[in-house]
Amino acid sequence: MLIDLVPLRTFVAAAEEQHLTRAAERLHISVSAASAHVRAIESMVQTQLFVRTNRNLELTRAGQLLFRKAKALLNEATLFTSFALEVHGKVEGQLVIGSDNEPTISRIGQTVAALRAAHPLVQVELHARLTNSARHGLKTGELDLGLLIDPPADPDFVYYKLRTVAFRVAGSAAWKEKIESASWAELASLPWIAPVERSPSYSTMLRTMFEARSLEPDIVARFNSPVLGRAMLDAGVGLMLVREEHVVHGLAQGSIAASPIARAEFPLLLAHLINRANDPLIGAFLVAARNVWPDMCPVSHERQ
Length: 304
Hints:
single chain, Arc Repressor Mutant, subunit A, D-Maltodextrin-Binding Protein, domain 2, 3 domains, two-stranded antiparallel ribbon, 11 strands
């Protein structure tokens, strides 16, 4: 029985997302194609892999067992391709990289340029991914490397810290006096703009700031792109966490106002699966990244 890795990848994505539409969006395929892929896997193994509950998909017992094997198989297939090319004495192939960051912050353009200069046979695909989606993409094999703003919490990953990213609480310049004089309680009571629920890093930063003070921000709107969030901020919809670089620029332009007391920091990390540590393609990218980030260093995962 031959295994087609394309429907297998869809099965893994559906299991990770617990939703067929979100899995299809992640893989950039139609929902009908995703459904056909799952049916093909179920037909091949002659057993039901999912049950539908409250609009979500849950793995059956058989699905759970096959899910773990499927992820391992996808990772091994990627690793095999890299080593097969290395046998011929050259680093060649394709790297797919997910990034939650703006190019100037992650220096991804300079890193890809350094990689291409050293290994012109390596092709690179860059995908814009929120941190949570990038994390799932690494585990399913959709991505080879991910740039994340996140604590190094997953034991399945090897992490490298590139820098610390600072955030400040900011809002429309029309709210300048209110924001600059606000106490923590007053900040929490103002309307807030936050990412969709599947953006745990941002949510963690909000909790870090407010839960320790027994406060909860009044979230009135959500976004799935920082650009959309900033559009609502500029329109006076509410406050949001904004990267330090944008705050400094906005203050100089007089376009935003920022709280002097509220600040958060998260590491910018480069990550890959631990079982890809000896992959020559991964190794080539890490060397290129060190050329761009001289202080790049490995960090251990934090126990939760």
